[in-house]
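Next comes the chain:
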Amino acid sequence: MEEALLKERVEVLLDFIMKKCLWQFHSRAWDRERQNENIIQKTMQLLCGEPVSKDTPEERCYYADAAYLAESYKRLFPWVSELDKANLKEVMQGLKERLDFLLITGSLNKELTDPLY
């Protein structure tokens, strides 16, 4: 996928998360890393029609957020359903990387890394 188009699509999906999803506000970096990995992975699996693990309570929690995200993306952004699996996975990986930067590595929130918090 062309880099400019990839960035545009990532930003559209990211904007939805930033405006509609409360899970982005976990108070510790490790929580945010784990949530980003699991929710985006499960969202990608749902959008690609792949099996999604829901064996543990934690996985079911991530699945609930991922199901909402996948359904919203399909409803609001028709191009999501038109992408082939390879391009969809590329967009979702870009989304995860951007989330990790904004919510963790690029965040100025010192509480994320405070060992006493």
Remarks:
- Residues 48 and 85 are 6 Å apart (CA to CA).
- The chain has five helices and no strands.
